Structure formats: structure tokens, C-alpha cells
Amino acid sequence: MREWTYYHGTRADLKTGDMLMPGSNPNFGQEALSHIYLARTLDAAIWGAELALGDGPERIYIVEATGPIEDDPNVTDKRFPGNPTKSFRSLKPLRVIGEVKDWQSHPKEALEAMKTGIAELAKQGMGPIDN
Fold first, then answer.
1. pLDDT exceeds 50 at position 1
2. Which of 104, 111, 20 minimizes the C-alpha distance to 62?
3. Could you tell me which CATH number the domain at 6-123 has?
């Protein structure tokens, strides 16, 4: 039995049993990342799905880690000390164990503000993810 439910937001079309691999196409930016990201809050996963690159539908998967996880330093160290978003990352794959079908998108204004912030970071030569 799992201690917590973990989520991963993306535009990838996956099935139960599929593996999300570190080094695959990331949700943000163009470079492959050494980690794969997951969250204990649905809200954080929704942001991941909404901001993910690509044209496919936004999806939220329930995942389980196949190895150790650590706090996501992109969120905890830079923006929200104490990890209130419950965001994590792993060097090992995540296994898809289900999909959340019923979830609410963020307001359009909030999504546009987030995209503007990410674009501003890119102009400064910084990405949203420091791998």
C-alpha cells in the first residue's frame, strides 16, 4: 500500500503500467532533464499539465516512484521554502498507476501570468527548471 498519492501533469498519452523516464522530453524547455518530477498535490500536477509543451490534451497521472525521491529544489529552495506544493523529483522512472479524469484548470488569467513569468525567465537566460 502506498503512503501517499503522487501525481504527474503532462500532455503525454500514457497507459497504466507505462513508465515516465528521466531524460525524456521535458514538460518545460527543450533539453532533456536528469530527473523526473512528481507532486503530492493535484494543484502542482495541474500546473505541470497546463504548462507542458505540445499540442496534446492536458493529463494528470497518478504515479508511483520506482526509486528514491527528493524535494524539488526548483520550488523549495527558490520559491517556496518548506515545500508547500509537495513537489519532488527522482533519478528513477515513475510508473503510471492511474489517471485523474476530473480536475479543474487554473483561471485563464493565472495561467497567462505563469506563462509570462516563464517567458521572462527565458529572456534572462534562466529556465523554470534548474536540473
1. no
2. 20
3. 3.20.170.40
